[in-house]
Amino acid sequence: MTNPQLQQMIQSVDQFLASYPTLCQYDRLREFEKKTGQPKAYAFFAIVALLSSIIYALGGAKLISDLFAFAYPAYMSFKAIDSPDKADDVQWLTYWVVFAKFSIVESVMNFLVSWIPFYFAIKCAFFAWMYHPKFMGASIVYKQVIKPFVMPHLQAFEQTKSQKKEE
């Protein structure tokens, strides 16, 4: 354990675990460390690897990529609901519109998924770009892809709806 990079990684994981003691079961990991003499980070890595293996066995790469695209945005959406700031509401509503559109297209074009190398890794990278606060890719996809396609149809629908009310 003389590798300085390994030590730095263990310290980073310990800081993360201490930041979320309930979620990470910090007390139990501390007991593990006392009993075995091994860093808490090792047990944490083992637990994450075990859970990832179980999730992969249950649903494969699709389930992992779907959880990746859903979990963090859902958490941030719950936070946005309670925040007074409307900008985060717009960001997460936009994300969910793009997410829904992507999910529909993915289910229709499912036969292509097996032909695209590293599809699920690419999907995870795409969704990370969409929800990362630095990039806000969902708003770019919405403004440049979805809005130009949907708005003309939505306006036509609204006109038809208003004409029906007048009759």
Automatic annotation (TrEMBL):
Keywords: Membrane, Transmembrane, Transmembrane helix
Subcellular location: Membrane
Chief location category: membrane
Annotated TM spans: 41-59, 112-131
Classification via InterPro entries: TB2_DP1_HVA22
A GO CC term assigned to this protein in UniProt: membrane
Membrane topology: Multi-pass membrane protein
Domain of life: Eukaryota
PANTHER family given in the database record: HVA22-LIKE PROTEINS, RECEPTOR EXPRESSION-ENHANCING PROTEIN
Family named by the database record: Belongs to the DP1 family.
Protein name according to UniProt: Protein YOP1
Native source species: Discostella pseudostelligera
